[in-house]
Amino acid sequence: MLLTAVIFSGCAVYAGFNYDQLYGTPEPKERIVPAATPIAQRYLTDVKPIIKNRCVVCHACYDAPCQLKLSSAEGIDRGANKEKVYEGTRLIATNTTRMFIDAQTTAEWREKGFHPVLNEREQSPDANTQAGVMARMLQLKQAHPLPDQKVLDHDAWDFSLDRDQQCPTIEEMAQYEHEYPQWGMPYGLPQISQSENDTLMEWLAAGSPMTGVAPPSAATMAKVKHWEAFLNGDSLKEQLVSRYIYEHLFVSHLYFADEMQPVFFNLVRSRTAPGKPVDVIATRRPFDDPGVDRVYYRLVQVGETIVDKTHMPYALSADKMARIEALFFEPEYTIESLPGYDPEVAANPLMSFKQLPVNARYRFMIENAQNTIMGFIKGPVCRGQLALNVINDRFWVFFVDPDMADIPEVNSFYESQAENLRMPAEKDSTTLPLTNWITYANQQGRFLRAKNALLNETFENGEHLTTDLIWDGDGNNDNATLTVFRHFDSATVTKGLVGEHPKTAWVLDYSLLERVHYLLVAGFDVYGNFGHQLVTRMYMDFLRMEGESNFLSLLPAEVRHQELASWYQESNQHLSEFIQGDINEFNQPTSVKFATDNPKEELLTKLETKLNSVGSHKYELVNAKLTPESIQALKTIGHIHGSQATLYPELTFIMVEPKNRNVEAQLFTLVRNSAHKNISSLFDEESNRLPEKDNVTLVNGLLGSYPGAFWLIQEAQLPQLVAQVKATKTEDDYRVLLDKFGVRRTSKDFWSFSDKLNQINKQNQPIEAGLLDYNRIENR
After folding, report:
1. Rounded distance, CA 131 to CA 134, Å?
2. pLDDT digit string, tens, across residues 416-453
3. What is the value of pTM for the model shown?
4. How many C-beta atoms surround the C-beta of residue 566 within 10 A?
5. Are the CB atoms for 302 and 264 separated by under 8 Å?
6. Angstrom distance (rounded) from CA 778 to CA 343
7. Spatial separation of the C-alpha atoms in residues 519 and 49, rounded to whole Å
8. Would the CA dihedral through 466, 472, 478, 479 be positive or negative?
9. N or C: lower Cβ tally within 10 Å for the chain?
């Protein structure tokens, strides 16, 4: 083995010398050209759409293979890195490599270990096509297209999430081509068309000239100026409010609601005031010490292609500014001094922002609750089983009425619990899990006992303990109800109560919502070590169960712990005290009236009825432009369960072409919901699975970022599809189903189907839609 390593190492060195002799030594080139030039327009109109629709669908976010983010000109020029971002076993935190944040030039990225995929030697057509990884990968695919197989050989192809990544440099390409001749790009998908390949190769041969995103219009920049002025007032109150807004929106894509084709922006901290070029303060977390006396909050245009897995749109408008004014500036209160950035304070929002009204903070989050909860799901991760196996596969979310938070006793209670509300985010990203976990578990136990003592007093004899405690969206806000779907290592948040009654539900109050945000969004470091991620995940067990217990408190006292125990069969020992009530003891009777022996189902029905008028109904099948008979057929598909449901991937995207040719193809999503005995197991999730209780949810429209399978169906074929689905009980049956209706990753029509799917999705959701990700498409 040592001899082999020496030989291969020597070959790489020789290849490097050979390229140096042929084309000179490498150094970054200036590839970004002015947008107004013809060569830039050629890139924008001919080249960029191909890269977007054929490359970005696998190469975006932290889970991009080899950290190769092709979603921007700067990312293409940055190149690739052999180190994985998602490495759950690392003992120390790794360096951050966030695009547009941790380095500003290609030369700086080279210093951070990124190698080019474009030729950085002599700029000639021969050198650009022979000494560039991207060009060689395209040529390899054209020379070795996918084999003529419906299902690719599992021994020759690895599509697992944690597969080994080769990430060859140009010096290693010859060896790669020899060992993996079929692994050209796009990997495991059909080759791009000859015309697309010719366009890309011509562009690469010409030196890969690119241009960044088009700058915003003067009208848009005027709005940016207006908002930056608003966010950078000089008073202590203005500075503290802006800090609060920033720490809650830093992962969002901000846009101006009155624009037909909006430009998206990130809210960043800058060393420079409005009117000067932005100088981004690149800290690991948004509450880390910025190292300057005064922070300025600036809007920076998003420089990358919008992809669904990181897209969290947040509308700015005159009404939104007026609402912030009403929440934070109209009430009478005084800011004595600004909180510092010491981690023990800054990582605990209940301490750092205690001078701001609780009601204002809570309403700021719940009035845009989908965005707030979406931050937990998409914000710092875009992928992460360890972060997401802490939630069930589908559950509903409700909120405590904000009027409950607008009383003096609430503020004083939080102040009294400051020590118990310290959070794992106060530690750095290299953490020892066991000792820290014991400390935080004890703190959480003390807080829950104190909280339930307060609740037992507040709701003595069940007074006011009714569904009136649940926020009704003020009669017009469709953020009042949410549904969360987990898809193994990704998840989706939608408005409305989607699907049949779920196993569990959450009721979130201010402190719980705030703590989850600072645990999983503001305080979570995807580059952190194993201990940091483990403590975060373990702490979330208690926060999740606190939300579930808030829901259960509306049930009769005698069934609360029974219900909780049924959700946590064979759970870990550290949760037993919570389940049995030693930590989470709330014993006041509910004032909700029940008439059946299934109070949980009754309660969910009562809440559905109460909130129906404000809930979103966009995912209901009746919205589809198909015949009533076809919609009924689709509903039948949505009823499969048990081992039949287990056969399907996490997400199946379905395109139905209507009988009426004047109607656009209709899109649907079949979501598999995996059942568990409990979700308290950290590593061996499979041992807690209950496949006999799996089910599916079928919704109108696309839901989720990572399709596992595609179906293409003529409306007239729906009765055949229903019959086929009913007959699908084995893996062989599922293959027959795909033979008839599937668009596999090997299909010759894959790319045309993909283009149509993304186009219709964008038409249906012009603000919310982003490019889908194809890293989870199954090979079955």
Report:
1. 9
2. 888 888 888 777 777 776 667 778 888 888 888 888 88
3. 0.93
4. 14
5. yes
6. 43
7. 38
8. negative
9. N
List CB contacts of 658: < 8 A, sequence separation 6 or more. Answer: 625, 626, 664, 665, 666, 715
Secondary structure (DSSP) of 755-775: HHHHHHHHHH-TTT--B---T
- Amino acid in position 294: R
Distance between CA atoms of residues 301 and 264, nearest Å: 6
CA distance 215 to 25: 35
Question: Given CA atoms 69, 70, 75, 78 in this order, what sign does their dihedral have?
Answer: positive
**pLDDT for 13:** 47
Within 10 angstroms of residue 408's Cβ, the number of other Cβ atoms is 8
Under DSSP, is residue 654 helix (H, G, I), strand (E, B) or coil? strand
Q: What is the mean pLDDT of each run of 10 residues along the chain (780 residues)?
A: 41 65 94 92 96 95 90 96 82 88 95 97 96 97 95 92 88 95 96 97 97 94 98 98 98 95 97 97 95 97 94 97 98 95 92 94 97 82 58 91 78 82 78 72 85 84 87 97 89 94 95 91 83 78 88 92 83 64 77 94 97 95 96 95 95 96 96 84 72 95 95 97 96 97 97 97 95 95
- Rounded to the nearest angstrom, the gap between the alpha carbon of residue 42 and the centroid of all alpha carbons in its chain is 33
Query: And the tokens for 493?
Result: 């948040």
Identify which of 286, 339, 743, 726 has the alpha carbon closest to the alpha carbon of residue 517: 286
Which residues, including other chains, have CB under 8 Å from residue 336's CB and lie 6 or more apart?
A: 236, 355
- Do 46 and 204 touch, CB atoms closer than 8 A? no
Q: Where are the beta strands (DSSP E) in 446-539?
A: 482-486, 491-495, 504-508
DSSP letters for 160-176:
-TT-------GGGHHHH
Q: Which of 577, 565, 580 is nearest to 446 (CA)?
A: 577
Count H helices and E strands in the chain, helices first: 29, 12
The three-state DSSP-derived secondary structure of 698-715 is EEECCCCCCCCEEEEEEH
Helix (H) or strand (E) holding 246: helix 236-249
pLDDT in tens, 515-553: 999 988 898 888 888 777 778 877 888 888 889 999 999
Give the per-residue pLDDT at 681. 61
Instruction: Enter the tokens of residue 381.
Output: 């991760």
- Joined tokens for residue 435: 């000792």
The helix (run of H) or strand (run of E) holding residue 363 is: helix 358-366
User: What is the separation, in whole angstroms, between the first and last Cα of the chain?
Assistant: 35
490: which 2 tokens? 């990704």
Helix extents (H) in 463-524: 510-520
Distance CA 36, CA 526 (A): 38
